[in-house]
Design brief:
Chain lengths: 219, 99
């Protein structure tokens, strides 16, 4: 098999898997009270899973839209670091850079940096980006349409879906002791803060605390 | 209101992606920044798990979602795919309510 075919096969595999995950996004977003158009707009325009789940999760839990938007942006900060790693690899300027930026996410970065040859890296980035964009948006639409057809999402346990979705997004990031400790401390801090501040605000406090920890710690 | 949040948050997320591709590499190569930024999703996702499991609005609540989270943890530990984790958690809540 040629390297390009192997890349295409992997890209398609990733795209199909995230299509399935987009179905749950469409469902959770609709159950949180966003319209079909708002749900689909998020997948087209934001196109970064964890941020999308966070925005609709905060809104669904009764938090303000702005707390949700801020959390989404904070979660998107990691994409800036991916962009740094990709910028020399992709070598894109002008209009191509503006287009490439939209595809700078976990999956495309992982696919691009896994190749040794720069040409294959670029191919992997674009192939994964396009395939994922299509499946992500189709999946979102399917999930949203299916949920719209359900009169009471709670009957299907959809209120239990967001924590499971966040857990599934979190798990791959817990490969060593430090992130695990930070995760447990953050969860505990969220519970402690929750009764005292408006919904969504504990997330912003925790983001500030972890940023301070990261900057102050020596090593 | 929701529309404004959707559009502004989308613009912010796009801006961060574009900044990474565009800003001089040295700005974002700072070691402390490189170590700190990956911790933010860990902290926020963990906080979101806790909040969405143990609260309704501003009130701490213990209900079937705790059992669902337990099922989700088992599914994640078994390396189940994303959709399986979410469906298993939802189905657990639905079944418990049915009984």
């Amino acid at each position: 098999m040629s390297p390009e075919r192997a890349i295409l096969r992997d890209a398609l595999g990733i795209a199909i898997a995230s299509g399935a995950y987009a179905i749950s996004f469409g469902a959770i977003s609709t159950a949180a009270g966003l319209s079909l158009l708002q749900t689909c707009a998020l997948s087209v325009l934001m196109f970064t899973g964890a941020s999308q789940f966070a925005l609709v999760g905060v809104i669904g839990a009764g938090g303000s839209v702005w707390a949700g938007a801020a959390t989404a942006a904070l979660l998107g900060s990691r994409n800036a670091l991916y962009g740094v790693r990709l910028s020399t690899l992709l070598g894109v300027r002008g209009a191509r850079r503006v287009a490439a930026a939209h595809f700078v996410i976990d999956e495309t970065t992982a696919m691009a940096i896994a190749r040794d040859d720069p040409r294959q890296s670029r191919y992997a980035f674009w192939a994964t980006g396009f395939a994922l964009f299509v499946f992500w948006n189709v999946g979102t639409l399917i999930g949203a349409l299916a949920t719209q057809a359900i009169p009471n999402p709670k009957v299907f346990g959809l209120d239990a879906a967001p924590p499971a979705a966040f857990l599934a997004l979190l798990a791959p990031r817990l490969r060593s002791r430090e992130p695990l400790a930070i995760a447990l401390a953050s969860a505990a801090a969220a519970i402690v803060l929750l009764p005292f501040v408006p919904a969504g605000v504990p997330l912003l406090v925790i983001a500030v605390l972890v940023a301070l920890y990261g900057v102050m710690r020596r090593r | 209101m929701i529309w404004a949040g959707v559009l502004i948050a989308s613009a912010a997320c796009y801006g961060l992606k574009l900044a990474g591709l565009s800003l001089p590499e040295s700005w974002l190569r700072d070691a402390r920044l490189q170590r700190t930024v990956p911790l933010i999703p860990v902290a926020l996702l963990a906080a979101l798990v806790a909040i969405q499991t143990f609260s309704t609005g501003q009130h701490l609540v213990l209900d079937v979602r705790v059992v669902s989270l337990g099922v989700a943890i088992i599914a994640v530990a078994l390396r189940a795919p994303f959709l399986v984790v979410v469906v298993a958690a939802s189905a657990t809540a639905a079944l418990i309510r049915l009984i």
